[in-house]
Every structure is written in structure tokens, then in C-alpha cells.
Amino acid sequence: xxxxxxxxxxxxxxxxxxxxxxxxxxxxxxxxxxxxxxxxxxxxxxxxxxxxxxxxxxxxxxxxxxxx
Length: 68
Fold this sequence. Notes:
The chain is of the alpha+beta class. It has one domain. It contains 2 helices and 2 strands. It has helices at residues 43-48, 55-67, and strands spanning 3-7, 14-18. It has a two-stranded antiparallel sheet with strand order 1-2. It is extended, with a radius of gyration of 15 Å.
């Protein structure tokens, strides 16, 4: 599948995003046109990072560190 590479300006983390859409819900289903991430931070989780612009990345890095 085709992808677009990116590099986050503040952290330097590199990644990619798919250029294609995988359709698996009927077109009239309200979830069919909404992207829902696997992890959605709560207000308190954002607050723990001081509402940092990279809160999601910091949250995930913290979770990875806890699993070791």
C-alpha cells in the first residue's frame, strides 16, 4: 500500500500514514466516515503532560516504558 512518510518537528520521531482508506462499514453508518484512534486520552491524561502538543506520544512512550 502507498504511504506518506513524516517526521515530527519537536521530537524527531519518524513514521508513516497510509494513503488509502479501508472500507468495512456501510456508507450510511456514522462510524464509516469517522477515524477513531485506538487510544483516546482523557482530560486528566492530557493534564498529566501539561497539555503538551505531543501528549499522545508522551503517553504511549510512558506505557511502553511500563511494560518492560
